[in-house]
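Section 3.1: Structural characterization of target chains.
Under the original work plan, the team committed to producing a structural model for every single-chain target entering the pipeline before any wet-lab resources were allocated. The record below documents one such target. The sequence was received from the expression subgroup and is listed exactly as submitted; it comprises 539 residues.
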Amino acid sequence: MADNNSTGKWSRRDMMKGLAGIPVVGAVFWAGAAKAAKQKESRENILTTLNINASPPPESGPMSGDPIRLGIIGFGIRGPQLCRALGFATKDWLKSMKEAADKNPKDTRLSSFLEQENLNIHITAVCDLFDVRAQEAADSFSTDKVKVKIYKRHQDLLNDPDVDAVVIATADHWHAPIAIAALEAGKHVYVEKPMTHGIAETYALKDAVEKSGKVFQVGHQHRQTQSFVTAQDVIGKKILGHVSLVTASTNRNSDNGAWQYPIHEKANPNTVDWKQFLGNVPDIPWNPEHFFRWRKWWSYGSGLSGDLMVHDYDRINCVLNMGIPRSVVSSGGIYTHRDGRTVPDVMQINLEFPEFSTGSSQEPGKEKGMTMVYSATLGNQYGRKTLLMGHDATMELGNDLVLYADGNSTRFKEMLESGQVNSDVPLYRYDPSANAVDGITSATSKYFADKGLLYTYRNGRRVDSTHLHMREWLSGIRNGTKVSCGIKEGFEEVMTAHMGGLSYKLGRRIDFDHSKMEIIPVDGYDLDEVLVSENNIYV
């Protein structure tokens, strides 16, 4: 008979004999081993019961074929970030990232950029109203084969036959007009959020997309984040039970986080096309703060509702598919940055979905309806988790995902009573970055990373979420594959944002008529005028 010791397989009897000389320690050791084995078996039972599929989004198609020729419209802050996601970085950025990596080996920004997949594109044209920024793009992206053309007017860029598709990263009030013009010119469109700045132009853009046959994508890159795809599986398997409350937040406490961006020393009426920037905004003299910090004013931006809440709304919508809320109530004010801005820096928005349900583990008809509460402050950076709170479990959702069984759960009642599940201990945890080393360089970067807005993971490797989102758009152009944030998702996102802004400015509940797919009018007000007015009407 084989010797158990020689094979490394010990029986319980052999184990006890071996520990006989140290009875107390031996007993504790054996009890611990038995407990660990039992816990492992219990965990495996739980995982089998949950049957959660932690998988990335489907791969988009190949990047082979002729290069797609892109025009970049808007090269301020987000424009260069989008270009890096496409594989094009400015010379100054490359230099600064090399210096940062030399100082801190954990700073992976440069190495991550250099390791990105080649998306097989050419940047052939750039348009920016500030000469210095347009020239920087042209100088950095031009090659011996492809010289980047500079345009001062987006209309001229859209007439360029050497441009197949455009990336729009302008101030909010130009998103829809440029996107519509681009589609009518036969260009594919990638536009930053929010999709529009007003209600009427939202319908006009929807019509333009549907008539064009072109590929249209809105820049909500978190739809590529692996934890969100896993969350979709959790919801699909009704693990949370009926979700009655969702809470999400934005917390920042820095100049950059409050849109107090630097003003370039070379900006003046000779280097900036101020009239073109204003567009249909009432004419005012050259104002560099309005040009560089446009997010602080309703005329050009959309405030916390359109600039930041839309991220959290779309994060939840891509998981729950709850669509546009029945009603929205907002409140807040300018409490932390009294610097002339007109958009609030503290805001709370309640979104009501009275008919929505994620499914119930209880008797039919007992549970129906959901509220999503979004709150934001630009005067404190304490991190708060996004929570989806169901009858059976609560999900913490960000770049990772954690589930807690509810102490009064119906689905997990027997497991809770047997002690197999403890409501204070995670029922399930998914962290795709568990073995990764990531250099977070600022509180603002951490905020975006925690929300899944900076990067995600593929096969244990960190990947830029925006890179994947733009790749998906490019695959749609090349291969006819589906995009995850097209006109339907963009319409839902921006109508919800407009409802939030209107409620704040009018000081009342704003309702949506799903049968007509429109915001219900408010007597005495032109809602588009209210949205862009610098006045808070109810004050």
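The first helix runs from residue 4 to 7.
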